[in-house]
Amino acid sequence: MCVLEISKIWNKIRYEVSLLLKKEPILSDFYQYSILQHQNFISSLSYILANKLSTSMISEKKIQNVFNEIYLNNPSILNFIVRDIKAVLQRDPAVNDYLTPLLYLKGFHALEAYRISHYLWNIKKKSLSIYLQNRISAEFSVDIHPAACIGSGIMLDHATGIVIGESVIIEDDVSIFHSVTLGSTGKNFSKKRHPTIRKGVVIGAGAKVLGNVEVGLGAKIGAGSIVLKNVPEYVTVVGIPAKIVNKLDRKICHNQEEKSSFQSIHNFQYGDGI
């Protein structure tokens, strides 16, 4: 199913580029190298990421080959990519097409590059994994430890300054805005010392969630808040330290779980200060 979905997305992207070539001929070489010379979405994504993450010491071609091989041989990662790019289109009102996240959004770039470093970490290729973590941090200003576990349908909006620690767990359909830290308190040196973020959570810009705490299903964290304790399901918390300011109707939330989460983010953006 993910192969069919990614093929549909790729066809839409190529069609979008064909229209843009007429409007923006100055970008023709950029479109040719990034999109048109590639046979499929994965080849294009691998090229784009390798172009950004390569250095004089490790060539673009070597990184591209690593990314391409891992993506193509792991259908579960492809499924994550499909859900991630769809999440951007559904939840970011500034994005109207699939081409934009693929070419321009560093949150999407950082996330899909992290998925490679996470895979490498899990197969004990830790040196290459940490090298990629460093390059992702340097290039995108997004620091995700390769051991962190991140689900699908994730949106990293704006993304600058996001930090995600080693034992963080993020479930599906989570939205994280810029300058968010999911870190430790510095007091707990156990294996699980970072937060667990449940499905459908929205974390506003500049919020910090620290320690082995859990943010419950569908909860929302206001911009600039500092969370040091567990957050229940379906509540909004704001402040330093974060306190509950709103409780959502669980029945309504349950009925809407299968729908797009765009409306939830839209309301949060204007109501709670993302």
Topology:
Layout: H1 2-23, H2 28-36, H3 41-53, H4 60-72, H5 75-91, H6 99-104, H7 106-122, H8 126-140, E1 142-144, E2 149-150, E3 155-157, E4 162-164, E5 169-170, E6 175-177, E7 181-183, E8 196-197, E9 202-203, E10 208-210, E11 214-215, E12 220-221, E13 226-227, E14 235-238, E15 243-247, H9 250-256, H10 262-271
Helix pairs in contact: 1-2, 1-5, 3-4, 7-8
EC number: 2.3.1.30
Keywords: Acyltransferase, Amino-acid biosynthesis, Cysteine biosynthesis, Repeat, Transferase
Family: Belongs to the transferase hexapeptide repeat family.
Count, helices? 10
Mean pLDDT over all positions: 92
Give a short account of the largest sheet: 6 strands, mixed
Looking at this structure, what is the CATH superfamily of the largest domain?
serine acetyltransferase, domain 1
Strand order of the largest sheet: 3-6-9-12-14-15
Structural class: alpha/beta
Shape: globular
Written as H for each helix and E for each strand, in order along the chain, the element string is HHHHHHHHEEEEEEEEEEEEEEEHH
Indicate the CATH architecture of the largest domain.
Orthogonal Bundle
Euclidean distance between termini CA atoms: 35 Å
Report the top-level CATH class of the largest domain.
Mainly Alpha
Total strand count, please?
A: 15
Stated plainly, the CATH topology of the largest domain is called serine acetyltransferase, domain 1
- The domain tally reads 2
List low-confidence stretches. Answer: 258-264, 266-274
Classify the helix fraction into a percent range. 40-55%
Q: Name the beta content range.
A: 5-15%
Pathway: Amino-acid biosynthesis; L-cysteine biosynthesis; L-cysteine from L-serine: step 1/2
GO molecular function: serine O-acetyltransferase activity
GO biological process, one term: cysteine biosynthetic process from serine
Family: Belongs to the transferase hexapeptide repeat family.
